[in-house]
Every structure is written in structure tokens, then in C-alpha cells.
């Protein structure tokens, strides 16, 4: 497998991780009814007289505080930024984007336009975070992750001109069905398939590939039309099929397998108005408990609990509590004096941080009227390899189009093609070029770019910890262990890293630990 | 291929029809930019002094009248029913459903709940009808046609218990990838594939099937979890793989290929509040031009145009005009005295009418909270073989679930399994049973059923004309010919039959014909 493809597949297939212990599995069961949450039912007086300080008002911190307060604990949250949400951050009109190197961008988009700089999708299988949306009354709408009218571009195919996703998907399937049919008919699979199964599979493949009566693939209506169908006598013309060789050389596997990953499968949602509607709803519920602009400067254990030092403006302050849930990223924890064990200190360095970025523009919605693309993602063989169309406010005049969402460096720290472009301006030009390759002449309509590079965002310093790598497992096993009154929460101590669901479930686990310590 | 499967594939793949003339196709082109509409740009005075009577206020009639009025023609519409839309009919609170045999149902659902008894989806490639939604200000929302959490049930698999769609889709793909890999490695395809292509294809298949390093399929996260991923140490368990033999015997091809048909591919839309928001928006624009409760009783040519006789209550009336666009279904035209040519009279009998039905219930949304199913369709191996979940008002308390949408008779008039159940009550019980098989214990929550059988709906007498059958082509070629001042419009004289897009494009063609006659 090519390195790029393997690296991509590793990244996406294992983003959530899974047990390979197939042998211990239940028999073919129903519907994953088992719950992932560690949170037991809690009485509202359980935590009376006990205090918890939560470090960080991202999803893990907010969920922790929300559940602890329900259970009667006295809760406070220290947040370094001037807003809740952490990486759940919707950039819009009036947002200042300031990087650690001092670069500043100010967003002047139309009211209501936004870029979800961090998480942008809510899978319907993420029951915990969806449950909070429901509980907090956050209105959701469908996020369209796949459009068959979205485009694929490779310099190695069709002279570099894009093709519709439906062409690549259904032409590929046609060839696969034809080739497997031939193999069966040549008796190459007699050892693997019974006569009955061969017959049934041939039958299935005829439909799977939309093969003709001789089991050949010649194109399909599924792959779409050059001249559409109309009224009266038929004038329609199908797309020419793309030769198999060209499809293979173009290597659209990233595009073809994107929608198949468990967390990116239909149906997906997004909050109406931006992903940050979730943390703001939590913050509204927790009003008065969150102290903003208060970066943590020390994390200490005491005889009876914890002591946290923090800054508020130029002032140094501290807070004591019986317990502390720390949701700061390991990249930040590395620089904060703390009383975690030496094994934990080491683990803070044991998982590389993903170096993801996003770039977005305000533009007239040319992709809708001119190209029938409503939501979904186009992919390119370019430094900026992905163009993501908005699912909000479809059919309106303008919108925010995302051109660029990937990594500037791989897990070993090597720069990607985008990462090798040295300046922000150069990367934005690359972003514009990708749109223009897909939508010729439309690159010029892109205005007011916003560039987010997570490694340069203060208090994040990276997008998420790559906890799914083999070399991360030792650190992971350490980080998930509470140390007395002190414990971590965050997506990186869950098996759904990079997703709010993981953050919420890690918070449940931390709360459950505090509850068990309260009871004992 | 099995008869059921072939019949399904014929129905869906050719519902829109297409030219098989691949040799005349353009080279691999971009994006189907060519327009399907026959409508030329028209001045607003072109039709001054000319009159057109339009028969039927369905989509074809409404579009015809709307465009003709824009071009300055004097337009009137005769409509037999007391509402616009024809088959575009949203049944909701207060709707009386009365069949030709006198059966009456009254809908008492909550305000805002509806069943789209006819068309229920707007594909994003249907630019004409989407354009009218935009022009008329009809708000649209995403219609979720596919949910990977939706279910598949077969008596031949898993003891009749349902499995998640993602299991069937990705297990099947895994086996296909593994088998094709084996064939290539056995050199069975050396004639078909170059060495380079073999290597690239093996690489692709490893990702396509999510195969292990030995190119075996052992299950995949894509197929989902029995025990979901959580925080801390991994407890998750994948579904067991479904054996290939079981998948083949269960024959889920209908479910697997549904989303692949060109008109059912993502992205799809629906008007907020019901599909009938489209005809009502047209009707609002055409206020005063539509006469309701006026069934046509005679269609006559005159020396200078047409004369149409119709009923209004007990009164017989007539209207004369220079032109007539007739959008009545052929099943209705068969019984109306008319001056169409003998060839046309014959053609009215030349295409069988599709005998489709829909059944829907009001219920608490158990499919959402308990099963993570938000929109999409589950399929069963039962007389009622499809359960379709609502895309509107997700996350609310109750909704309308459709259990049953298929045909009661095939194209030869043979009854389907559902059709063989003699009574409406029996069919509704079958509908409830299907829901209960997918969602055990939930059948009892279904209330206030509505049953629509299109062959029994007055002024429709069938769902659509099967114009895609080989035996329909002679009639089709006749029906698309205007006869002087008299011409037909409707989805059945288009290559997108059963869709509003076809109706709208047929209207454009009729208007273009009138324009050409006006100019000459």
C-alpha cells in the first residue's frame, strides 16, 4: 500500500481505535445497545460539601462541571481563554484569531457566517454529545458529509480536470464487479466459493456493478450524465467511463473511503449557527462558575486535595478543592509545574500532537447553482487536498467554503506538501488554487480568508494527541489513570480522540472516579 | 439474476431511461452543464392576445401556466380536485382520503405532521424543480435518504433479527475485496490486468475492503460496534462479521443499491412542511387562474384552437382557447371523449400504470433515541419491505413513520406479496409487523394509520405510467407528439418519469411548442 494511503487509512480507521479481540465478541448482536458512558445514576446530594476545580472549559471540562454540579458538588472552572469551548471554536464576525507567533487575523464575514475551526460534525452514533444537545436545547441540522456531485481532481486523470465523485465511485465498482465475475467464471475461486454461493455472488455482482447481460461494465446511469435527461425524445448522454487504469493511477481512495469511516457515516449533524452553540449552552447553564482569562500556572496536590495556581490579568491567585479534573492538552501540561507522578510527566511527552489546519473563505455559492453541489466534500491531488462545502444556509447568496483541512506535518513531524509552503499567504494561495481547479474561474470570488493552524493556537498547541499510534499506547495507559484527587479528562484519554464524544465520555469517567472516591 | 432483483433493478435503473448510444458520447466531459430544459428565453409580450387552457394543476400544469403567463399568454387552469398539486399531495391534519371505491380515511395527526403521499424527495441534480423552489421562495431542508444505522431484515439471516445496514454494506465489500485480491494473486486476471494495474488494484482493494496485512477480511470498524468505544481502557467490541453465504442468501441488493440510483444519490431535499408547499406556492402565484372542482368531460379541437367541456358542481361548462396543454394521466384520458388522433387514443392504453402505495403512522420517535436512526430507510424481506424514517423535525417527540412504499401489482398486473393481502386492514397490520420486526415492541406505538393506494385515488388512477418498459416505447413516441393546438405534458412524456423534474421539463417542452406556433 502506498505510504500516503496507508498513512491516511491508519489515521482515519484508528482515530477511534478498537479492540482486535474478535474471538471474545458476542454473537451477532443487535444495535450496540451497550452504553459507553461510565457515569452511574447520581443523587443530587451526593457531592454535598465536596469541591471540584475543573481546568479548562472545553467539552470535557464543561461536561465534568455540568454533571458534578447536578450531583451536588461545588464546582469551579478555570479557563485560559475569554470564551468556553476550547477547540470547539466557531470563528465569525468579530473573532480575532491570534497565533502564538503574534500573527493576528480579524474576521469580518457577514453576520451568521462561521468556520468551525475545530469539530464540525456530530455523528448520529455519538449519543452522549447528541444527548447533551437535546438536554441543553441546542438546535441541530443535518450536516451533509457526502454529495455525489462533489468533485475529484488528480493531475493524473482527465488532463487534471475534475470528475464527479459519482463517476469514480460507480466506474470503480463496475470494474471490480466485472473482474470478480470473470474470476468466478474462470473457476479461479472454486476453492473459496461453493457452487450455490458462486451463482448468488454472480447475481449480486451484476447489480453491484450494473453490468450488462454479458457481465461487462460499460457505464451506468449511476455515474451521471453529460447531457441530462429531459422531456420528449431522449437526448441524454452518459459520462464516458473512466478507464480503470486511470482511476487506479489517480488513487481516489481517500475520497472513496472517507464516508465509510464509522464516525463519518450518515447521518451527521451540526448545531444551527455553529458548533460553539454547544459550549455556549453549557456555559449558560454553568453561569457564574467559569472564570475566563485565567490560565493555570501550577497544579499541586495537598494533604486533603488539590491546590491550583492561576493568573487573572497580572494577578496570581490560587484555588483549593477536594478534587481536580484537568482537561488541559498534554502539549500545555508539559510547561506547567505540577505534582503529577514522574510516569505521568513522561506520558505528557508520549503522544505526538496532530498538526491540523483549516482555511476558509467567504464567497458567493457558485458550487450550488452552477455545480449542483450542496454540502459534501471534493478531493484533490494538491497541497490543499480537500474542499468542503457548507451545509448551512443552502440556497442563500453567500457562504463559507472550506478549502484546506488536513495536516501541515505528519505524525513523525515531517511536513506535508501544504506544510512545505512557508508562509500563510502562500498556503492561502494554495487554498484558492484548489477551488479554482475544481471550479474554474471561481477562485477569484473567494474573499476574506481565515487561516487556522492548531499548532499555533494558544492553549491548544496542536489539534489533538495522536493516541491511536502504536508508540502512543504506553503513554495512553498512563494518562487514563487517576492520581488520587487529580485526574485527566479530554478526548485524548478516550478511544474516540478528536471528537467531542470522546471528551464527554472521558468527563463521565472522571466524574465516576470522583463519585467512587466520595463514597469510599 | 433472480426475478425480484431484476425487476427491481429494471424499475430503478430505467425509471429515468437513458440512451445506450455510448459511441456518440462526448469525450469525458465536465459536469453535465448542458441544460435539459426546452424553454427558450421569452419576452413578456410574446403571447399577448393568445389564450391557453391547461388541464390539471399538478406540477406539469402549474409550470406550464406559470411560464405561459410570464410570456404574456392568457391562461386558465381546470383542476378536478379541490387543491393544486395532483400527486404532489401532503396528507395531514384535516385531510380526507377518499378512494374511488368510497373508502374514506380522515387524518387526525398533530399539526405539522404530514405524509408526502406522492413525491417526497428533491434530488439536487433536478435543477428545474429546485429552480422553481428558489424562484417561488419555498424553503427546503435536507432529506436524509441514507442512514448507515438503518436496518436490514431477512428471515434467512441472523434468525430473522435485523442487522445494521453498515454491517451488510461493509462486510460485503470486505469479502468482495478479499476474493478479488485472491483472484489477482492466483494470476486469474493476468489477461485483464497489467502488472502495474494489478499492483495498484491490490493496493486499492486493501483499503476498499479494510483487509488485514494478509489481504483477509476479518471485520472492520466501518461495520460498527456491539459495545461502543469509550474513555480509558478500551472495552469496545466490533460486530461479528456476517458470513458471506448468509449475506448472499439474504439478498440485500435492493437496500444496497437504492442509494446508488442517480435520482436517489446525496444530496436530496424536501420542502419544509411537506412537498405540497411547491404546488401551493405556484397556486399562490397563479391566484385566480385555477378553477378547482372542475373535472374535464370533453377535449375538442376547433377550427381555431380547442374547446374543453367540464363540470362545475352539477353544471356543465366549456372554455375555448387557442391552445391546450393537457396534463391528465393516460388512465384518466382513456375515459374522456376527445379529439386526439386514433394513434393517440391507442397510446393512452399503451403504457401500464404503476400500482404504488404508501402507508404511514404517527408515533413517538423510538427509532431516533433508541436506535440512532435519523432519516434513511430500513429494508425487510416481508410483504411491507421498507420503513422510511422522517427527515423533518428530528429530535422532537413524535413523527410520521412510513412503513410500506412499493407496488401492490407488478408491471404485468400480478399482485405483489402486499397486493395479495386482500384488505386495507390486513395491509396495515403487515405495515405494523414490519416496524415491529425492526424495532421489537415498538409496533404497538404506531397510531392513526393513513393508507394511500394510487390506483384508487380519483383523477390519478395509478401512480405513474411505466414509460420505461420496452413495450411502452411505441406509445411514448406517440404521446410526445403535439397534435396541433393540443399537446400533452406530465412526467410520463419525459425521461424522468415519476419525478417532478420530468413534469416540469415536459411543461417546458409544451410551452416551447406553443411559442413556436405563436411565432409561426
UniProtKB/TrEMBL annotation, chains A, B:
Entry keyword DNA repair: no
GO biological process: auxin biosynthetic process
Uppermost EC category: oxidoreductase
Signal peptide stretch: none
Keywords from the named record: Auxin biosynthesis
Biochemical pathway: Plant hormone metabolism; auxin biosynthesis
Pfam families the UniProt entry points to: Amino_oxidase
SUPFAM superfamilies: FAD-linked reductases, C-terminal domain, FAD/NAD(P)-binding domain
GO molecular function: tryptophan 2-monooxygenase activity
Family under the similarity heading: Belongs to the tryptophan 2-monooxygenase family.
Protein name: Tryptophan 2-monooxygenase
Species in which this protein is naturally found: Terriglobus roseus (strain DSM 18391 / NRRL B-41598 / KBS 63)
Lineage: Bacteria, Pseudomonadati, Acidobacteriota, Terriglobia, Terriglobales
Amino acid at each position: 500500500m502506498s505510504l500516503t494511503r496507508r498513512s491516511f487509512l491508519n489515521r482515519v480507521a484508528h482515530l477511534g481505535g478498537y479492540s482486535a479481540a474478535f474471538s471474545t465478541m458476542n454473537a451477532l448482536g443487535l444495535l450496540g445497545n451497550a452504553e459507553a458512558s461510565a457515569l452511574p445514576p447520581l443523587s443530587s446530594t451526593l457531592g454535598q460539601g465536596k469541591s471540584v476545580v475543573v481546568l479548562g472549559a472545553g467539552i470535557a471540562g464543561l461536561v465534568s462541571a455540568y454533571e458534578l454540579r447536578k450531583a451536588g458538588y461545588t464546582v469551579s472552572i478555570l479557563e485560559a481563554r475569554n470564551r468556553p469551548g476550547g477547540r470547539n471554536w466557531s470563528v465569525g464576525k468579530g473573532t480575532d484569531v491570534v497565533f502564538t507567533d503574534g500573527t493576528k487575523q480579524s474576521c469580518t464575514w457577514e453576520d451568521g457566517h462561521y468556520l468551525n475551526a475545530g469539530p464540525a460534525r456530530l455523528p448520529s452514533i455519538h449519543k452522549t454529545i447528541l444527548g447533551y444537545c437535546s438536554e441543553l436545547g441546542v438546535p441541530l441540522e443535518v450536516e451533509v458529509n457526502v454529495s455525489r456531485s462533489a468533485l475529484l481532481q488528480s493531475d493524473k486523470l482527465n488532463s487534471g480536470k475534475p470528475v464527479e465523485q459519482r463517476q469514480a465511485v460507480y466506474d470503480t465498482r463496475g470494474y471490480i464487479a466485472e473482474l470478480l465475475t470473470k474470476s468466478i467464471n474462470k473457476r479461479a475461486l472454486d476453492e473459496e466459493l461453493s457452487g450455490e454461493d458462486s451463482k448468488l455472488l454472480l447475481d449480486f455482482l451484476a447489480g453491484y456493478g450494473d453490468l450488462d447481460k454479458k457481465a461487462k461494465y460499460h457505464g451506468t446511469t449511476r455515474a451521471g450524465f453529460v447531457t441530462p435527461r429531459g422531456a420528449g425524445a431522449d437526448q441524454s448522454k452518459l459520462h464516458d467511463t473512466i478507464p480503470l487504469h486511470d482511476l487506479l493511477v489517480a488513487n481516489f481512495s481517500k475520497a472513496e473511503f472517507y464516508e465509510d469511516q464509522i464516525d463519518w457515516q450518515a447521518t451527521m449533524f451540526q448545531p444551527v449557527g455553529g458548533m460553539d452553540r454547544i459550549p455556549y449552552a453549557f456555559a449558560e447553564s454553568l453561569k457564574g462558575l467559569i472564570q475566563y482569562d485565567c490560565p493555570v500556572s501550577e497544579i499541586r496536590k495537598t494533604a486533603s486535595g488539590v491546590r491550583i495556581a492561576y493568573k487573572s490579568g497580572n494577578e496570581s491567585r490560587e484555588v483549593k478543592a477536594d478534587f481536580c479534573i484537568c482537561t488541559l492538552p498534554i502539549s500545555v501540561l508539559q510547561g506547567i509545574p505540577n505534582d503529577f507522578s514522574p510516569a505521568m510527566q513522561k506520558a505528557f511527552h508520549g503522544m505526538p500532537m496532530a498538526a491540523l489546519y483549516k482555511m476558509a473563505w467567504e464567497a458567493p455559492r457558485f458550487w450550488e447553482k452552477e455545480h449542483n453541489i450542496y454540502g459534501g466534500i471534493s478531493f484533490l491531488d494538491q497541497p490543499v487536498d480537500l474542499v468542503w462545502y457548507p451545509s448551512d444556509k443552502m440556497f442563500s447568496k453567500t457562504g463559507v467554503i472550506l478549502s484546506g483541512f488536513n495536516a501541515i506535518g505528519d505524525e513523525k513531524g515531517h511536513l506535508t506538501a501544504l506544510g512545505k509552503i512557508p508562509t500563510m499567504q502562500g498556503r492561502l494561495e494554495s487554498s484558492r488554487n484548489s477551488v479554482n481547479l475544481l471550479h474554474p474561474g471561481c477562485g477569484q470570488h473567494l474573499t476574506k480568508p481565515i487561516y487556522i493552524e492548531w499548532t499555533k493556537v494558544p492553549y491548544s498547541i496542536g489539534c489533538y494527541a495522536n493516541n491511536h499510534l502504536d508508540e502512543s499506547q504506553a503513554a495512553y495507559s498512563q494518562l487514563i489513570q487517576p492520581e488520587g484527587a487529580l485526574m485527566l479528562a479530554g478526548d485524548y484519554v478516550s478511544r474516540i480522540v478528536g471528537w467531542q464524544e470522546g471528551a464527554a465520555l472521558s468527563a463521565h469517567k472522571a466524574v465516576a472516579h470522583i463519585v467512587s472516591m466520595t463514597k469510599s
